[in-house]
Amino acid sequence: MPHFIATLVMVLTARTQKLLNILMEAEKPLTISYLAHCLAVSPRTIRYDLDRLRYWVKERGMKLECRPRVGVWLEGKEIIGGEGKFLPLPELGTYVFSPDERWKAILALLLRSEKPVTAHKLASELQVSRTTILKDLETVEEWLRYRGLELVRKPKLGFQVLGEEMKWRQAVADLLAAAADENQLYSYLQELSPKSPSKQPRSFLEKICSLISKQEIKELEVIVQETINDLNYTVAEGNFYGLLLHLAVALQRIKQGKNVFISSEQLEQLRALDEFRVAYKLAERLERTYGVKIPEGEIGNITLHFMGAKMRQGSPVQTFAGVEPYLLEIVQEFVRHTGAVLGFNFFEDKELIIALALHFRVTFHKLRWGLSLRNPLLQEIKEKYPQIFFAARQAARRLEEKCQVGIPEDEIGYLAVHLAASIERQTSREIRYKALLVCGSGIGTAQLLLTILRKRLPELEIVGLGSVLELPELLKGSQVDYVITTVPLELKNFPVIQVNPLLQEEDILYLRRKLLESPHKGGPPLMLKDVLTEETISLDVEVKDWEEAVRAAGRLLVRKGVVEERYVESMVRTVKELGPYIVIAPGIAMPHARPEDGVKQVGLSLVRLRPPVDFGNKANDPVDIVIAIAGVDRSSHLQILAQLSKVLSDKDKLHVLRRARSAKEIIEEVKP
Where is the PRD domain (predicted)? Predict the structure, then answer.
């Protein structure tokens, strides 16, 4: 093997090697979308791989060219390998795994094997030392323990994964999800010929996909599609491939005599569902096709997967048909609480309500029956949406008693994603900025400019229109983000943007850039230390009831000039209308109202009560800390809440809030 190829194999993934071969053999530039189609990955993934390739080809005298609307090609490839081509991918040699890929590949090998596997065999498979394998097995053991499985070491025989069948299958599903998304896995499996000779897998994805029969995936697609068509049953397109992967794993295990157990009581409940009828018909087809006996417990398991994949007739955002009333009650309780914390009216989002109801429908069955429920994206969700996860967790705690089931963090992560999607839908429709329009031309030109702005920049609301002479009157009591003008203008307290009276395309681009640079969007994030000051902290305040406590926190904001008096009244009214949902955690209340209720600027106040008082929240009373939030918009509210949620989730920081002797101590504690 040429030295160049041998060196390349040590650092490039199998996919990147394949991409390199395609570019070496191409006679003309290839588009990124074409390359993405060839390798069954996203265009974004192709761009990452091209970045990796760019360095390597440069070191070897070539240049990777990439031009918009032209494509990607290699310059100087004729200097390599005589004919200007690399060896075909199968001859490139053994794939070298990254540390993260390696322990997952070890896990796949262990899950695939029915017998113990020695460390020596694992080392040989992955071409690393036995010491490296033993260290990786520590990671594997921890990963399995989290999922209720055990990594057992049998002397002279090796390592083996033991545990309940349902948990074993969930572990396989989690591993597949960690390797790639369902569409990528399915595309990869569809590319491979089931009749190709069996060879030792070289790439990471090949190792993981060795857990699934490639031939059965193709057969199952036909069987499942025909079954659901015959029964007029609809599966959400995005869930179909995941359903196939689950069925492929289940079928292999059934053939090996590894069946899922579901109690007679649980089966009795499942038999009443439409999904059970579909699962039963599918099981009959599978029995005829593969000559296996599918126990009723397995039919119950397939039922649960259908419940998770189902999309009801018609779009779920258009109908509540078939959603059980008790589920809607649970969802309403959940969105009422999370909405009160996050400052959003989730009741307006019909798509969210139905999505949560369908989600809870499956989840409660699994939780009540003790079935494994793991969220491979949990940590990422916590980091990306801390405030939303915090609100979802507090709401879930309230539901546990009502539903008589514990709700784990993995499930709370899924609920947070639903809320995040709703927030994105709502904020994308919002008017983000308010502006005054000042014109030096005639009325006709001003109206034309106004019409164009409303059409081209829907996120911008023009709240006033006038001349330079009328501007002082327009600015009185006005809360605007910008003054847009067609004449030179300077103002001390308002940012000014000057544009052409006939608004050229470059003016539109300029306006968009200025809006993106706004503190609401692209400016520096709000920090707690900037909005919580010594003047807005009051310690050991004595009040007679919850209303007086809320007013005490509100007065601090009024004195600071952050809000008007009416904002305090709105906070009190909100509690009376929605109930004590502002008590978000044991001993902590977080009152707030809408930005339009009198917010002048972003602010925060903290009142510590001595003694604590009841707010009427049975789970979290009595309250000793009241934190009032004032956001100029929902974006600023979420920014503050994101940081607050980290403080309030930290037991040590909470202890300081409750024991600090001065406001200065508290400010020091909330600093990032």
Answer: 211-316, 322-429
